[in-house]
Design a protein that fits this description.
The protein has eleven helices and 13 strands. The protein has 334 residues and is an alpha/beta fold.
């Protein structure tokens, strides 16, 4: 009998990789999507165009995270064995501009789903994708599963609430519920509003003569950046363990925005200093510092480790941009 999974946030970067991973493992996958949009659905186009997959092993259902009645009805009809909760406002910078909706969908949206699952018989296994932003300004470096939460952004606060609620429901109601505490992770499917994608896309545009300048904020901002498909590969494994536990997923290696610029522009034989300017308007009001993950528990529990180096990931993203922006070119990338 095929396993059945339900994914919220299925149209995002992580959701699109997760549905591919689960389909490859033989799952039937149901996804909750918001109002149809080409921008939000394009990561799934290749699956929706496959007649052997769409409406046979992959099914989409429309609902917002605050639509409790519809979500309850979907879960009752699907009866999933596993629920992967990825949805929510995920742009840290934007959370300062829309703090209420960030908390509404990222924090309260998670609680609403937990409450719906509490009434299910049996209760599906549940995975919530948390974030390193819960640590904010940490007392210890690197951070692991026991590091206290000290969020300093609205997004971090919302994720901290959701993460603690998952733990509370696990301990109080016997849920098989886990938090995947993900440090930054990128891919060619990252949204264009994120600084990493801005850099790789701008480098390609500048190389092709389609752009003349890139303006950024703090070039010294430092993060633990990994490869999104690596992180997603851990999600299903976490729900197959004998006991539920939270796991930090991270590379343990810090990099700066300048590192992104050096590799992305350098790969295209460009000196980023000739094309990049800074503007204080793009500097965050509060920027987490020294976020560096300790993923030793994940290595022990599910034998997880990154498959891509930082440089390989950045180059893959640049090559993707060049193919998208210049699809008819037969010339090599460099």
């Amino acid at each position: 009998m095929m396993n059945t999974a339900l994914i919220t946030g299925i149209t995002g970067q992580d959701g699109s990789y997760l549905v591919e991973d689960l389909l490859e493992r033989g799952y039937v996958v149901h996804g909750i999507v918001r109002t149809p949009s080409l921008q939000r659905w394009q990561r799934l186009d290749h699956l929706l165009a496959d007649p052997e997959v769409h409406d046979k092993r992959l099914f989409l259902h429309g609902a917002d995270l605050d639509d409790v009645t519809t979500i309850r009805r979907i879960i009752a009809g699907v009866q999933p064995g596993e629920v992967y909760h990825l949805a929510g406002q995920s742009h840290v910078g934007a959370s300062f501009e829309i703090p209420e909706s960030t908390c509404e969908f990222t924090a309260m949206g998670t609680l609403r789903i937990l409450e719906i699952l509490r009434d299910c018989r049996p209760v599906p296994k549940f995975l919530h994708v948390s974030s390193s932003e819960i640590f904010g300004s940490p007392d210890q470096v690197p951070q692991d599963e026991s590091t206290p939460h000290r969020p300093i952004t609205p997004y971090g606060v919302a994720k901290s609430f959701a993460t603690d609620m998952v733990r509370v429901y696990r301990e109080s109601f016997g849920f098989f519920a886990c938090n995947a505490i993900c440090f930054n992770h990128e891919s060619p499917r990252r949204g264009e509003s994120f600084v990493t994608r801005k850099i790789t896309r701008s480098a390609a545009k500048i190389k092709l003569g389609l752009q003349t300048q890139l303006t950024l904020g703090n070039l010294d901002a430092c993060r633990d950046w990994g490869y999104a498909p690596d992180f997603v590969s851990a999600f299903q494994c976490m729900l197959q363990q004998d006991e539920p536990q939270d796991l930090v997923l991270a590379t343990g290696i810090p990099h700066t925005v300048k590192d992104w610029l050096e590799i992305a522009f350098g790969y295209l034989d460009l000196d980023w200093r000739d094309w990049v300017t800074t503007d204080q308007r793009f500097v965050r009001k509060a920027d987490p510092r020294e976020l560096l993950g300790d993923a030793r528990r994940a290595r022990r529990a599910i034998e997880w480790k990154p498959s891509r180096t930082f440089e390989e990931m950045v180059i893959e993203m640049v090559e993707h941009e060049m193919r998208v922006l210049n699809p008819d070119s037969s010339q090599p990338v460099q």
